[in-house]
Amino acid sequence: MQVSRSGYYAWLKRPGKLITAETLQLYRKAKTFFKRSRNSLGYRELRKKLRKEGFNIGTYKTRKLMEKLNLVVKQRVAYKVTTKRKHSDTVADNLLNQNFDPEGPNQVWAGDITYLKTGEGWMYLAVVMDLYSRRIVGWHIDTRMTTGLVMKAMIKAYNIRKPPKGLVFHSDRGSQYTSKRYRKLLNQLGVRSSMGDVGACWDNAVVERFFGSLKYGWLLKVAQPTREHMKKGVTEYMRYYNLERLHSANGDQSPVQYENSLRKVSAWS
């Protein structure tokens, strides 16, 4: 071990370092939050979590704490376009223009599709997010990336939330969203379609960030040998994301906490 004999015996005689009960509790909480996030919590989010638990901790101390406890976050990979449009389909106007902060719930939703790789082959996930709270209000996963995939995600979201007519749904120009079947569904539900510009990933940046967190902060931290295992992992993350994951856009509250705080000061239900 390249340690001198005298240095080794000096180390043996040195008394162990004592830590307070509060520090021990801090270490345990930090490890618990980090493990719960599947090793995806950065120092900013960990600091927020610890402060909510009553610990008086700043940015520098949180970074040193993560270093001491060897809490290392893996970096995400770059964004990749997942869907392409059929040029014969109609494209909706961009009603958002990167304005991702509606004034209330069920005013603007956004959605997209992403690829998920398993040991048995690919799966495809479509989501619907309420941009007000960043809550995932509908999703569907399948082995085929069809129009039916995005329709099922939208129908689930609509049945759960029952939004008023005039709701805006924003997506990219993928063939699933520009198809006649999907446009017909939106018309039947009283939903207005909005689509981003060609190749402009920032036009749906909030959903893309969600996919990044899902895949590189959760799913890819463990092996995904089967499609059933992948479905279970996605379901677990949806619960974690909606119920526990803090968002700066929500005043450092989870989507569900943010919506519940709204209910306390309004008649929305």
From TrEMBL:
<dbReference type="Pfam" id="PF13276">
    <property type="entry name" value="HTH_21"/>
</dbReference>
<dbReference type="Pfam" id="PF00665">
    <property type="entry name" value="rve"/>
</dbReference>
<dbReference type="InterPro" id="IPR012337">
    <property type="entry name" value="RNaseH-like_sf"/>
</dbReference>
<dbReference type="GO" id="GO:0015074">
    <property type="term" value="P:DNA integration"/>
</dbReference>
<dbReference type="InterPro" id="IPR048020">
    <property type="entry name" value="Transpos_IS3"/>
</dbReference>
<dbReference type="Pfam" id="PF13333">
    <property type="entry name" value="rve_2"/>
</dbReference>
<dbReference type="InterPro" id="IPR036397">
    <property type="entry name" value="RNaseH_sf"/>
</dbReference>
<feature type="domain" description="Integrase catalytic">
    <location>
        <begin position="101"/>
        <end position="263"/>
    </location>
</feature>
<dbReference type="InterPro" id="IPR001584">
    <property type="entry name" value="Integrase_cat-core"/>
</dbReference>
<dbReference type="InterPro" id="IPR025948">
    <property type="entry name" value="HTH-like_dom"/>
</dbReference>
<dbReference type="GO" id="GO:0003676">
    <property type="term" value="F:nucleic acid binding"/>
</dbReference>
<dbReference type="InterPro" id="IPR050900">
    <property type="entry name" value="Transposase_IS3/IS150/IS904"/>
</dbReference>
<protein>
    <submittedName>
        <fullName>Putative transposase</fullName>
    </submittedName>
</protein>
